[in-house]
């Protein structure tokens, strides 16, 4: 998957960042660049943000294994065991 590097930082009920809830994604624009869709990915290994990740908004290529997981009542799609190419 090739697109722009993005992240989402979860917040608590007071609007404060939750340190262990950072979600990384590759965002892909459609052919007309009017719309975009992101897909979460989880890097293989023990990685730290920001040291082991590219700059926000930079062009990335991610390869991984497509799968799903649940958080509460929600089902999410992600690329597991991902690497940057």
Task: Summarize the helices and strands and which ones pair or pack.
Blueprint: E1 2-11, E2 17-29, E3 36-43, E4 59-71, E5 74-84
Parallel strand pairs: 3-5
Antiparallel strand pairs: 1-2, 1-4, 2-3, 4-5
Please give a structural write-up.
The chain is mainly beta. It contains no helices and five strands. The protein has strands at 2-11, 17-29, 36-43, 59-71, 74-84. Strands 1-2-3-5-4 form a five-stranded mixed beta barrel. It starts with a strand and ends with a strand.
Structural key phrases:
85 residues; mainly beta; five-stranded mixed β-barrel
**Alpha-beta content class:** mainly beta
Order of strands in the sheet with most strands: 1-2-3-5-4
**Which of globular, elongated, flat, extended, rod-shaped describes the shape?**
globular
Number of strands: 5
Order of helices and strands: EEEEE
Estimate the mean pLDDT confidence.
94
Q: Indicate the radius of gyration in whole angstroms.
A: 13 Å
Q: Regions with pLDDT < 50 over 5+ consecutive residues?
A: none
| Number of H- or I-type helical stretches | 0
What is the CA-CA span between the terminal residues? Answer: 10 Å
Major sheet attributes: 5 strands, mixed, barrel
């Amino acid at each position: 998957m090739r697109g722009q590097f993005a992240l989402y930082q979860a917040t608590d009920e007071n609007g404060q960042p939750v340190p262990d809830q950072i979600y990384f994604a590759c965002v892909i624009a459609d052919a007309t660049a009017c719309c975009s869709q992101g897909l979460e990915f989880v890097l293989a290994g023990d990685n730290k943000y920001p040291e082991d990740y590219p700059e926000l908004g930079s062009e990335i290529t991610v390869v991984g294994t497509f799968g799903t997981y649940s958080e509460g009542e929600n089902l999410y799609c992600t690329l597991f065991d991902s690497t940057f190419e």
